[in-house]
């Protein structure tokens, strides 16, 4: 978004009981200033995370999703065999690369790794938001036939 930090809000508008609509305008808290080339590098890096990096599980053909995976350590690695003590997994991303329409931050407690636990959830969120349906996998049975030697 070019470095703007907006005050978080949950709703875009409110409709009162008498039908009046109250718009909630985003408020800018502050702005981070960087050269445009630096912003471009950051955005390209986030896009590559989903295309070929740790966020591949969020990849959707035809939709540019950009994001960053992460893992928040809960306890020492010696305890990672106990599910309740596994690390938290997260994935922060946005879709509609050139003109973002939706942003998500997904945290899976004790999920292990962001790429395997949180990124697939972002994929499902974006598919639902954009109304993307993937073709069903078709499994066909292979039929073997023996051809006669007659016409060979």
From TrEMBL:
InterPro entries noted in UniProt: Beta-lactam/transpept, Beta-lactam/transpept-like, PCN-bd_Tpept
Span of domain Penicillin-binding protein transpeptidase: 1-126
GO annotation, cellular component aspect: plasma membrane
SUPFAM superfamilies per the UniProt record, alphabetical: beta-lactamase/transpeptidase-like
Gene Ontology molecular function, alphabetical: penicillin binding; peptidoglycan L,D-transpeptidase activity
Signal peptide as annotated in the record: none
Gene3D superfamilies noted in UniProt: DD-peptidase/beta-lactamase superfamily
One example of a Gene Ontology biological process annotation: cell wall organization
PANTHER family in alphabetical order: PEPTIDOGLYCAN D,D-TRANSPEPTIDASE, PEPTIDOGLYCAN D,D-TRANSPEPTIDASE MRDA
Identification of the protein by name: Penicillin-binding protein 2
UniProt source species: Thermodesulfobacterium geofontis
Upper lineage: Bacteria, Pseudomonadati, Thermodesulfobacteriota, Thermodesulfobacteria, Thermodesulfobacteriales
């Amino acid at each position: 978004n070019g470095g703007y930090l907006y005050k978080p809000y949950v709703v875009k508008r409110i409709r009162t009981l008498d039908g009046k609509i109250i718009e909630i305008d985003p408020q800018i808290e502050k702005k981070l200033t960087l050269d445009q080339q630096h912003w471009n590098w950051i955005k390209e890096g986030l896009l590559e995370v989903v295309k070929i990096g740790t966020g591949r599980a969020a990849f959707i053909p035809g939709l540019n999703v950009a994001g960053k995976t992460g893992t928040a350590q809960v306890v020492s690695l010696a305890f990672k065999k106990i599910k309740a003590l596994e690390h938290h997994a997260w994935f922060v991303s946005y879709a509609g690369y050139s003109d973002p329409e939706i942003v998500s931050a997904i945290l899976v407690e004790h999920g292990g790794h962001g790429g395997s636990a949180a990124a697939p959830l972002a994929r499902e969120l974006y598919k639902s938001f954009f109304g993307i349906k993937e073709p069903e996998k078709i499994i066909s049975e292979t039929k073997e036939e023996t051809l006669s030697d007659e016409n060979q």
